[in-house]
Specification:
30% helix, single chain, alpha/beta, 11-stranded mixed beta sheet, 22 helices, globular
């Protein structure tokens, strides 16, 4: 391993002291007991600040127990220490540093940088960070037996959460910049940086002061460092979504999993008259991923996975086809056996079970272990949710009467039309959760950067809908408790929770796109939702490394809730602003009193038609109802222009309803609408409106709007104002 000479000038006195120190260490090493010595270099997290009984529960102490008697682990953590030598408390000037050098470790675990985010440090001395880090490592190398470490573990930093007082004023951004600098240092020494950040970033409940982990957090940290030292990550394993009977995205198949560090993993795909093989090496954190050559749709295929450690796995009955993720809240989770056409639908489902027919469906149905109904969960359930164990274990299943009946009704009908049209297998993953909020599905890193206010304590956070907060409090049994008593509790409705439990586990599994139906739990604040939905789409596309990944969503239907008119219109605008998205209108299928309308077949079929048109070349299919493009105002009239507007007419043979015009006073009155050309509609104001300045359509929470196009598809709620 390369050892760099110090580049900072050093006094003769300091050099003499270093020589004496090395001589002392040589003597100490000569009488060592043969155990492998591990030095844990760090700051207060390594020290164990805030942990009662830290001598036995700080991460180095727990690491000692994990490694066993063949290792000697020493804690050289110094609270408040900086890596920067010009920082406010340089580690290299502390007694802990001197003792670490005297120890003469075989293995060094370095976790520094958190205190360098202090405004006294990073803004002034950032250019010195990598140089100072190398000097620290070089000194540890020189102090090691025979002048080099047996293993160097350079750790990324543990998280600093949004509740930290300096989070938005600089800590958040500087933390990210320091992580990048640590990665560059690790690259210089030819090692993979140990990711101790990710296993803890999803556990804010383990950081009561937003900086220091509890003993439970220290255990996770110790377990991760154990893997970094030994390379033992539990051997060959796959995420749950990779399993027998799965459907792989045929044009971009991939396999991913974990294995012990440095292990070579060979993946072999076999089919009738077909075989491909690829080999990849697990990185220092135990992760491996390999892209496969495109597969011919159909199957079945068999996938064999073997490692140089002689571990093997075999996946059977694999199909290649199109994979879509169906997600959102209760209207997406709404089961096929609950919808209006359930009897016929369930009877027809077995037709999509036979692989030989080409058109077949398979389901990966992720279900919450506890429904978010109006009840109180047991303490065991609350603890499981805290541990991110909300979803039940599941596996891929073929479509039949039983599996389809319990699957998403919209998802089933969406997939059925795709399979029929494409004549290939379709895999559907469903992880919708009833009542879930948009923010629950957005990556924590994204919210920390773009919307940190929504991460504030949830009991008194008005960005989170009051209903969602109340229901979460009811489920957790904390109704009426103070904010400080509930700040660290976890629930599926809380920001980022469902991203961490339902999306992150799928990140390595290629999908074609997303079918989404959600918004009911964010309709109280369309402005916040506008931002959150955009962040959700962006964070998912980033997670799958596909910035153009198709994302199609269902607009909220009709329901007697006053905010829904504005919310539906905001969804219409979002569809036009976020690229490669599509919106399905279903306001004609709503129920004035029930947030769960039962007509789901039509919704799934409409989404499938849109997706076939946009992504599979079915240009002859009309993808949506008339799309309002804008309006021109003249005197008492508004002329509105539409796309996808062949044969504009009323679906029920009546006059076109629910058009309204307002003048400068902002008071709307019913108006008369007449089709005056291809994709053109003239709306004439009531006599009391002398100058038209605003026009709107379907502007009732539960609307009886009736305008459709030649495909019988409805027009969205919309509003245009004179500029």
């Amino acid at each position: 391993m390369q050892i760099l000479s110090p580049q900072h000038p050093t006094s003769c006195k300091a050099r003499l002291a270093a020589i004496c120190l090395l001589l002392c260490m040589t003597v100490a090493n000569a009488v060592a007991d043969g155990r492998i010595k591990v030095a844990c270099i760090g700051n207060s997290v390594t020290f164990g600040h805030g942990i009662e009984g830290r001598d036995s529960l700080a991460y180095p102490a727990q690491l000692q127990r994990m490694l066993g008697d063949n290792y000697e682990v020493r804690n050289f953590g110094k609270s408040g220490a900086t890596l920067l030598r010009h920082g406010h408390r340089p580690y290299n000037e502390q007694e802990e540093y001197r003792k670490a050098l005297e120890f003469g470790a075989d293995i060094a675990v370095v976790h520094l940088g958190l205190n360098d985010t202090d405004p006294r440090n990073w803004p002034n001395f950032r250019d010195e960070f990598e140089h100072d880090y190398r000097q620290l490592i070089d000194s540890l190398q020189a102090a090691a037996p025979e002048g080099h470490l047996k293993r160097l573990v350079i750790c990324l930093m543990t998280p600093i959460f949004s509740g930290h007082p300096r989070f938005e004023s600089g800590t958040r951004d500087w933390h990210s910049e320091i992580q990048d600098a640590i990665r560059r240092v690790a690259t210089h020494y030819g090692v993979d940086p140990l990711d101790i950040h990710s296993p803890l970033h999803c556990r804010p409940d383990l950081f009561p002061d937003n900086l220091h982990p509890t003993a439970e957090g220290a255990e996770i940290l110790a377990r991760t460092v154990y893997g970094g030292i030994t390379g033992d990550w539990g051997g060959l394993s796959l995420p749950e979504v990779y399993g027998n009977g799965m459907v792989l995205q045929h044009d971009a198949p991939a396999m991913a999993g974990r294995a012990n560090a440095g292990t070579k993993v060979t993946v072999t795909v076999r089919g009738k008259h077909y075989k491909q093989r690829t080999t990849v090496t697990a990185d220092g954190n135990g992760y491996w991923r390999t892209a496969l050559e495109p597969l011919k749709p159909g199957g079945p295929y068999t996938i064999d996975i073997e490692t140089t450690d002689k571990e093997t796995l075999q996946l059977q009955d694999i199909l290649a086809g199109e994979v879509w993720l169906c997600s959102g809240q209760s209207n997406m989770a709404f089961r096929l056996d609950q919808c209006a056409t359930a009897q016929n639908d369930v009877l027809q489902a077995p037709a999509y079970e036979e692989v030989e027919k080409g058109a077949c469906l398979r389901f990966f149905n992720m279900r919450g272990r506890w429904d978010t109904y109006d009840n109180t969960w047991t303490s065991e359930a609350c603890d499981s949710v805290r541990l991110l164990q909300y979803f039940s274990p599941t596996h891929w299943t073929p479509c039949n009467a039983m599996t389809a009946a319990g699957f998403s009704a919209i998802g089933y009908h969406f997939g059925r039309v795709l399979a029929d049209s494409l004549q290939m297998p379709v895999g559907l993953i469903c992880n919708a959760v009833g009542g879930s909020t948009t923010e629950a599905w957005v990556a924590r890193t994204t919210l920390e950067k773009e919307f940190p206010a929504i991460l504030k304590p949830w009991m008194h956070n008005d960005f989170i809908q009051d209903w969602a907060r109340s229901r979460a409090a009811r489920n957790l049994g904390v109704t009426g408790k103070k904010a400080e008593d509930t700040r660290l509790l976890r629930h599926p409705f809380l920001p980022s929770y469902l991203f961490e439990t339902a999306i992150a586990p799928l990140r390595a599994f290629p999908i074609k796109g997303v079918a989404w139906y959600q918004g009911e739990s964010n309709a109280h604040n369309k402005e916040a939702h506008d931002k959150l939905f955009t962040l959700l789409v962006d964070s998912w596309r980033t997670e799958w490394n596909d910035l153009g990944m198709p994302f199609h969503f269902v607009q909220l239907s009709s329901l007697s809730r006053p905010s829904w008119t504005w919310f539906r219109d905001s969804q219409r605008i979002l569809q036009s602003e976020i690229r490669n998205t599509g919106m399905v209108v279903c306001s004609d299928l709503g129920d004035s009193l029930d947030v769960h309308p039962r007509h789901k077949r039509e919704v799934g079929e409409r989404m499938a038609a849109q997706v076939l048109h946009e992504h599979y070349g079915y240009s002859h299919i009309v993808p949506c109802g008339p799309v309002p493009l804008g309006a021109v105002f003249t005197d008492e009239k508004a002329i509105i222009f539409f796309d996808y507007a062949n044969d504009l007419h009323a679906c029920d043979g009546d006059v076109l309803r629910t058009f309204e015009i307002a003048g400068p006073d902002g008071v709307f009155y019913p108006a008369e609408a007449t089709v005056t050309g291809e994709g053109k509609l003239t709306v004439t104001a009531a006599p009391m409106v002398k100058e038209a300045t605003s026009v709107r359509y379907g502007w009732q929470p539960f609307t009886r709007a009736n305008m459709v196009n030649n495909a019988g598809l409805p027009t969205s709620t919309f509003r245009f104002d004179k500029k």
